[in-house]
From TrEMBL:
Keyword presence, ATP-binding: yes
Domain Protein kinase as annotated: residue spans: 1-94
Name under which the protein is recorded: mitogen-activated protein kinase kinase
SUPFAM superfamilies: Protein kinase-like (PK-like)
Name of the gene this protein is made from: STE7
Length: 116
């Protein structure tokens, strides 16, 4: 949930942009990004954390700088400063990915599945 919704502000598409940023970060990290791996927090701790703490960002040493920038922009706490959907669609990282040729079959066959 976006910071503005937690503090009683109105819902806008920018609330969804916040959620997109958090989801992209979770996908990149493979875990929920607001606490260390294996750590948990109550809903009240999470609300407080999102509203008062500096959020973690993706490392440009590990992830493409464009992705890091896109996620960081989605997670700007002030919705008036957060990009709108049109801004995200023309973000350089999205433009770069739109023209990239990806062999999905090759990628999928390279994934190692865990033993269950």
């Amino acid at each position: 949930m976006s910071p503005e919704r937690m503090t009683g502000g109105s819902y806008t598409v920018k609330s969804d942009i916040w959620s997109l940023g958090l989801t992209l970060m979770e996908l990149a990290l493979g875990r929920y990004p607001l606490k260390g791996e294996g750590e948990s927090m109550s809903i009240f701790e999470m609300l407080s954390y999102i509203n008062t703490e500096t959020l973690p960002m993706l490392s440009q040493e590990i992830f493409p700088p464009g992705l890091c920038d896109l996620v960081a922009k989605c997670l700007i706490k002030d919705p008036s400063l957060r990009p709108n959907l049109k801004d995200l669609l023309v973000h350089p990282y999205n433009r770069e990915c739109a023209v990239a040729k990806v062999n999905i079959e090759q990628w999928a066959s390279s994934i190692e599945l865990p033993d269950f």
